Amino acid sequence: MRFSSRANVLPGSRIRHVLAQVAELRKRGTNIYEFHIGQPGLPPSKEMLEDFCKLLLEKSFEVSSYTPVPGIEELRMAISEDYTYYSGVKINVENILVTTGSSEAIIGTLLCLLDFDDEVVMLNPEYLLYKPIVQYLGAKVREVRVTVDNEFNPREEELKETISKRTKVMILVNPDNPTGAVLREEIIKLAIDLAKDYNFYIIYDEAYKHLYYEGYHTYAVKYDLEHVIALNTFSKDPALPGWRLGYIVAHDEFVKFFQRIKQYVNINAPTPAQYLALLYLRKYKRKYLEETLPIYRERRDAMYNALVKYLPEVKVIKPKAGLFIFPNFENYLKKLNMGDDEFAVRLLREENVAVVPGSAFGDGGKYHVRLCFAKENPKRIDEGIERIAKYLEKYL
Question: What is the pTM assigned to this prediction?
């Protein structure tokens, strides 16, 4: 069979590779400590789902029909009001476009913006979807290395030095996946100032914007809506990853342009998911966040405390937001002459602990692993981290 040579730049997600291995082991009845998949570990609101089932039966035609390309009007209005409430910035319905998950938002935005040989600035490590798509579109990646020593924030001078006249896009993920870092507000302001000076766009991925345990989220659109395209999802705080729904907040001209791309991709985001999201925003969001955030905070604390307790040579920061911790195991793995890929494989096979190797997110993730604390309870989190420590002790 003859396939596109360009598609070879898309290596496949190593997160999905780990997920497939876990699924195979679970089929055999293996008890897995699941620190690998980046999704909420709590179910959606039961009351909301019951409400949705009634709506589906009462309005089965509407809930199963095509919608306008940018999404149903009621949902776009609800998103604009919700975003205005939390950000303090007046966002109109014309600034909102509903997408099939944030994946479509990412790919569609890059399709809208990039020409061959444009330059895209991104951090390293960073979420693994971005770089392959940029390269697939023929643009060039310029990376800024971030490390645990600076809490995974770029240094201002290094960020400035990476910008050139060919820069078309800068990608910022805040709160970050995989590192769990929160970008400092002065870094976000600097990035937007550079975007204005050099006339490029900032893709501002804020999927975890409501999952804060300390501090607050910086809404980049409050500084400039013309140069900022904010990408969002319903996969995280409402715990609806399988419903595949996201949205873009951007200048109305960009929203209009994106619709032209979307018509050729999927026409509209899943209609049932749009109606469910409308229920979430109108009736259940604040109550659900009040119930779930304390649980995630407890799990985050359990994982961080276990890392400090059992693995004193690991370099790690306690994340203020998101669902991930990104410890650096270099002090252990170098002694074993082992990379993070092999480490992740052996942890799963020998200790039944599922993690994602840090190098999946760029070479800046070498010797790290991404740990998601969302699914397991504090007792199992402590047990899982202890198993990692005992594995290292055995070979050291």
Answer: 0.96
